[in-house]
Please model this.
Amino acid sequence: MTRRLYAAATLALAMSTVPTTAAEAAGHGHTHGARAPFTLAVYGDAPYGTSPTDTAEFQATPAFIAHVNADPDVSTVIHVGDIHSGKQYCTAAYDRSIAALWKTFADPLVYTPGDNEWADCHKPGEGGGKYDPATGQVDPVLDPATGQPVDYASGNPVANLDLVRRTFFPAPGRTLGSGTLRVLSQAQLPNRAHPEDAEYVENVLWVKNGTLFVTINVPGGSNNDADPWYGAPTASQAQLDEAARRTAADLRWLDTAFAFARTGGISSVVVSTQADMWDVDGKTAAHLAGYEPIVASLASHTTAFGKPVLLLVGDSHVYRSDNPLTQGAPCTGDEGVCAHDAWTSHPAYDVPNFHRIVVHGSTVPLEWLKLTATPGAHHPTTDTSFGPFTWTRITRS
Model:
């Protein structure tokens, strides 16, 4: 079955679920009515640490959550992935500690996983291990006190993604934080041609006051396909299969989301994922080739939709606001970030109704983006506005 046919086949089920979700979402928070403005708090790459024992950002998180909770405008929180740094271990205990912190959010929280909590767990710096060419085996990083691997499943990425799903997505369609927002999960849409899509409980969509939100699991780095696990000479079949299956499921989920958006009543779309798919991070553009199917899908769907599409990502840590699908589009950002990442890291596109925000992360004080959607608004594209969206960067001093 083609992606287009799959989208058509599942659209009826999506439509039977999403309007209920939209009605519930419209009644949550501090404004009411289908055309009322609403506000979200967006953050990611937090809490970070510079070593397995650096907990400064973790310790600052309760006050950060209280700060977000105290804002009367916020009705939903989005976390765009990376719950720890690439210098911290991947353990079940740590994942549970983040889940416990997130329960204190007064508003519902929607989370999309980042590479550091699963795709990169194989790396020695995250407690995984190192491939030994002499034996063809992996030497795991061991805890000197116990002699056991420090990482869950010795850092195996697939096992750690399963751990993330069990910890943060125990029930399809339920959110974190207050848990009061119901969403539609890809796991809830049966697909006879692709039964594996039932695994992707983390891919969700929901509607609020005419804006459709959709998350897709796209991890930073290289979409888990250009950095062989454990530093082996080549990627294993397990790694290749993981990247191919997840990317295909992501594409089908984008097809479903935009098919619904084009049926009417949707005035804008917000896509949330972890990967900054244009961030070469000192590598060649070929390192980003695994993202091209996602980029091409976003470009095609955004063009066909013809209305504002906003992409929220983390991954590269430094705040940036621009349109990477239009050459020469204005860019605003910190630390000279607009001079990085050549526009040619993906083939040329020209999609003016698209905008990207990279939320700032991995620093103290913790920062969040206060994002407001005003249905029916047509703001010019500036450093703080795009279509129905306006935003402000907030730090807790």
In short: The chain has one domain: 3-395.
